[in-house]
Amino acid sequence: MPPSIDLTTRIDLPETQLPKAEPCVLVIFGATGDLTWRKLIPSLFSLARKDCLAEDFRILGIGRREMSDDAFRDDLRGRLTASGSDKGTAEAGAFTEDAWNAFAASISYLSGDFFDPETHRRLAERMKDFPGANRLFYLATAPSAAPEIVRRLAEVGLNREERGFSRIVLEKPFGHDLASAQELNRLIAEDFDESQVYRIDHYLGKETVQNVLFFRFGNALFESVWNRNHIEYVEITAAESLGVGHRAGYYDESGALRDMVANHLMQLLALTAMDAPVSLEADSVHDKKSEVWRSIRPMTPEQVASRTVRAQYVAGTVGGEQVPGWLEEPDVPASSRTETYVALDLRIDNWRWAGVPFYLRTGKRLAQQVTEIAVHFHKPPLSFFPCQDCFQSNVIILRIQPDEGISLTFGAKQPGTSRRAVPVSMDFCYQGNFEDPLSAYAVLLLDALRGDSTQFTRGDGVEAQWRIMTPIATAWAEQDQEPMPTYVAGSDGPHQAEGLLEWNGHAWRSIADARWACRI
Ligand SMILES: NC(=O)C1=CN([C@@H]2O[C@H](COP(=O)(O)OP(=O)(O)OC[C@H]3O[C@@H](n4cnc5c(N)ncnc54)[C@H](OP(=O)(O)O)[C@@H]3O)[C@@H](O)[C@H]2O)C=CC1
Ligand SMILES: O=C1O[C@H](COP(=O)(O)O)[C@@H](O)[C@H](O)[C@H]1O
Fold first, then answer.
1. Ligand 2: residues within 6 Å at CB?
2. Is 240 annotated as a binding residue?
3. Given 108, 320, 327, 391, which is the most exposed site by the fewest CB atoms within 10 A?
4. Annotated active-site positions, please?
5. What ipTM did this prediction achieve?
């Protein structure tokens, strides 16, 4: 029996009736880059196949390379159909020649350097060729190009919304620290109204992430115990078995704190901890998330020393494959002190959560991919049971990926004459109950085209996130003489991370041994 709750889409429509975006020209800055061919084009193609794009929808890619429209389309087609796990075909849905040709007819290309004013002048001219007046500018570029593009768009008048909408989508990382994020927000606000700005965090487009609020607030059973009186601690894990691929240059600058914690994990934490919003309107949701982030006091250097762990992986075996250590990866300097693993003990200083640790961890080259939120409840008084140690705490696990689902673990009496309890679980799996959802990027592109910024990050939100992260990054940078902790690739992470929880009498759930009922 499928469950009676409808979690298939945030907009309460069955997937077959997904909404249609308004006619629009989508301009992609960075059209020859990794994000465009791996995520954006496959997602747009899947939206086209599901008839979610208007007939007059157009895509204009901008890149540095000289290329004709046809050459650009052929390049994208080749990448979309190439074999391999990371080529986007899964997101695009089954590829057919007819579907691609119909979609490709909407794609064109403009070559030019972002830093050359002439590029933007030619862009403004080119925009006149397109039907309709709506435009969405997607900055699939290095963050350093964003200020220039924003300024130049305004210079040629493309920020104005006289006849239709004009929106910009900004990729993460949004700034490098609090000061740079504030500066970027200030600069954007000179030319764009906040309602035109969409700061994307692709975790917010994941179906299981969007479900967190539905699970918490759509079920009286859970929300009534969702506080410090019943919850002992919360674990948020985003473990990856993958390395950095060809993005070592970017990652060496960024590290796990800026790449994953400052955005994706902060969003998971906010969704887990926030109070009920007044509505699902963007500002109501953003207000409640910001309250959570503002309730986390920035750490002092002493707290950074005792409540954070960072580490780099050394050579090991992941999924049966021998992999080199971080310092041996191509393009990584031998002196790199970039962390590939982070664990934090964060405290939310408010009425609901006072005293409840929120443990966050993320890393590359860990034992397997596991992204989950595990909520551990207090043990009840067990005085009249002969076996007290055989009871484990109840845990609710929201499994974000892979094997998406929700699990509740509890103790049950071992059958027979035993007076012992054994841990058992109730499991809900997406697989088998729901159709495959749209990819995260498809969901968010559709939202941006429809003008719904609920699942994006508001300007004050990114600053609030950096207010928590910057003191940690600063304290780490000042510890540059201390040896960098390490962990073996394919393990659960550095042993120091265990100490972070042991101190409070808690323990991480195992990454290597994670077994899950929804795995098929
Ligand atoms: N790739 C991913 O999986 C993810 C990426 N992101 C973010 O998306 C953004 C883009 O990342 P990614 O696609 O990986 O980066 P890439 O380096 O692969 O792509 C950058 C693109 O920008 C173009 N470009 C760079 N400088 C200029 C310039 N001066 N003038 C014109 N074009 C220029 C490049 O052209 P050329 O080909 O000529 O160099 C290329 O098309 C980054 O902010 C990243 O953090 C976020 C999440 C995931
Ligand atoms: O933004 C990023 O996310 C990916 C992880 O995303 P997921 O959807 O596969 O969980 C991460 O690998 C990458 O380093 C980071 O930039």
1. 240, 259, 371
2. yes
3. 320
4. 264
5. 0.97
